[in-house]
UniProtKB/TrEMBL annotation:
Residues 179-254 form the Cytochrome c domain. GO terms for cellular component: membrane. Residues 28-155 form the Cytochrome b/b6 C-terminal region profile domain. It is a multi-pass membrane protein. Keywords: Electron transport, Heme, Iron, Membrane, Metal-binding, Transmembrane, Transmembrane helix, Transport. One of its GO terms (molecular function) is heme binding. Component of the menaquinol:cytochrome c reductase complex. The chain crosses the membrane at residues 47-64, 103-125, 137-155. This is Menaquinol:cytochrome c reductase cytochrome c subunit. PROSITE patterns: CYTB_CTER (PS51003), CYTC (PS51007).
């Protein structure tokens, strides 16, 4: 007898497999330790890991609650909002000359639109089969440029922002009832004071709140005359009588 060269199997896709049972998981005993059934083994493990992270997140939230600011006031023109950290790069972009003011549409829509459009088109421009980044220059270049731009703009936004002033402007302070019809408030609103300290007198970037200060009228007049901190002297434009009334009005603003 002559030894054969082997045996060949021929399959026909038109022949239906009568013994197929889709609802019964396959037998993985032939591959021990290499694979397992998705349900319930793998799915149960994923649920357990997810539950551990969820409980840890809840504990962290309870131990370190999110910081709250005072109630939003749409009439406070001195308040400078700050977006969350993942939008800081766009926030920084809007600070530049040709992306803000009259060119705001360029910084808000045109530049981000071109950047994200380039990232979306990258897979269609570079359709090579290579998987190594070095052999896909267009896709790699677009991605590196995008990552570098986001990191740089985010960093610039963080280092140039006045975090101390931002913390003060959102600080929860004791509420004081302000009589906006009083003579003292009318003098206040007619001076440059309202520009920095706000319509609610709660302060703004670089300017402290002037309610419930604990200062006497004479001390307030001294600050008005000589200035303090970022507040220069000689800002009050009015008579000494108006200055006295303004100082007495600020002195009377005491939290209940």
């Amino acid at each position: 007898m002559h030894r054969g060269k082997g045996m060949k199997f021929v399959g026909d896709s038109r022949v239906k497999a009568n013994d197929r049972k889709p609802n019964i998981p396959k037998d993985y005993s032939e591959y021990p330790g290499k694979t397992e059934a998705f349900y319930p083994n793998f799915l149960l493990r994923e649920w357990m890991v997810g539950a551990v992270f969820l409980v840890g997140f809840l504990i962290l939230t309870a131990a370190h609650p999110s910081p709250l600011e005072r109630v939003a006031d749409p009439t406070d023109t001195a308040y400078i909002p700050l977006p969350d950290w993942y939008f800081l790069f766009l926030y920084q972009l809007l600070k530049y000359t040709y992306a803000s003011g009259p060119y705001n549409i360029i910084g808000a829509l045109v530049i981000p639109g071109l950047a994200f459009g380039a990232l979306l088109l990258a897979p269609f421009i570079d359709r090579g089969p290579e998987r190594r980044p070095g052999k896909r220059p267009l896709a790699t270049g677009f991605m590196l440029l995008a990552v570098a731009s986001v990191i740089y703009l985010t960093w610039e936004s963080v280092v140039t922002h006045d975090w101390e002033a931002a913390a003060k402007q959102g600080e929860i302070v004791a509420e004081v009832e302000i009589d906006t019809e009083s003579e003292g408030y009318q003098i206040y609103s007619g001076q440059a004071c309202i520009t920095c300290h706000g319509t609610d007198m709660q302060g703004g970037p670089g300017a402290p709140a002037i309610v419930d200060t604990g200062l006497t009228a004479d001390e307030i007049i001294e600050i008005i005359n000589n200035g303090r901190g970022a507040m220069p002297a000689g800002q009050f434009q009015g008579s000494d009588e108006d200055k006295q009334k303004l100082a007495e009005f600020i002195e009377s603003l005491i939290a209940e």
